[in-house]
Specification:
It contains seven helices and twelve strands. The protein is of the alpha/beta class.
């Protein structure tokens, strides 16, 4: 056989080997079979779980926990959210909880957290009092936003604000809050009362010695608080007034001066 014929014969044999025999099918391995099964069953199972969480007691609320509430009784909060019991947690939104808790003015903010299988946790942040306003002869605690918190007989922890208007969006009230926030905690605890004029200048009266502090405007609050703290630390026992309205040149007035 001549060489060209041998080459042609070899090419033909290789072509024939490359042709698959009709009727034969490739076999799937074990992983291939399971892959096809999971491809079909997986989405069905996931859909079933999602539907079950919405329409069955699988994730229904059986217990509600409250964290952070000090002035609000847990029983009152639980009563307000009683409509959530036996509801699937997947159907409960923060908007719904906010609506149910809207009657509690003491709540500043809250967050909710599902703890499967049956516990709903609600983290409460209550409003924190910063001063006392007198209304109809009664002392009331107010927070920095001007929201009334509660009546109080305790007068040693918070300063009085000499103010008879509406604290909400009042420049005088917000100025008083700004000044109190600028004070160190130790100095804040010594303030008996704070008064803000129509021109938004501030005067403090300290508990010890009935010492009056002329604060001036709310500007340079941190510097003024540092100057005041320094003067109190060095001793102004017999002083009548301290003027820190110009913090770089404070004035201390003594009797007969």
């Amino acid at each position: 056989m001549r060489r060209p014929e041998r080459e042609l014969l070899g090419q033909e044999r290789r072509r024939i080997r490359g042709v698959k025999t009709p009727g034969k099918r490739s076999r799937l391995g074990a992983f291939g079979i399971w892959g096809r099964i999971l491809t079909v069953v997986g989405p069905v199972s996931l859909t079933a779980v999602v539907l079950a969480s919405f329409f069955t007691p699988m994730l229904a609320v059986e217990k509600i926990e409250f964290v952070g509430n000090e002035r609000i009784a847990a029983a009152d909060l639980e009563s307000a959210l009683s409509a959530l019991y036996d509801r699937p947690m997947t159907t409960i939104s923060d908007d719904e909880i906010a609506k149910l808790l809207s009657g509690f003015s003491l709540i500043e903010t809250f967050t909710s957290q599902a703890q499967p299988p049956h516990t709903l946790r609600v983290n409460i942040r209550e409003r924190q009092p910063i001063l006392i306003l007198v209304r109809s002869g009664q002392n009331y605690l107010y927070d920095a936003a001007g929201v009334q918190i509660a009546a109080s007989e305790e007068t040693s922890k918070y300063p009085f604000l000499v103010f008879d208007g509406n604290p909400i969006e009042s420049p005088r009230f917000s100025t008083a809050v700004k000044v109190l926030f600028s004070l160190p905690l130790e100095t804040y605890s010594h303030v008996f009362s704070i008064e803000v004029s129509e021109s938004l200048t501030t005067k403090l009266v300290l508990r010890e010695g009935n010492l009056t502090v002329f604060w001036g405007s709310a500007e340079e609050g941190l510097l003024k608080s540092e100057v005041l703290e320094s003067l109190l630390a060095t001793g102004v026992k017999d002083a009548l007034t301290i003027d820190v309205s110009s913090p770089n040149s404070p004035v201390v007035q003594y009797p007969n001066s």
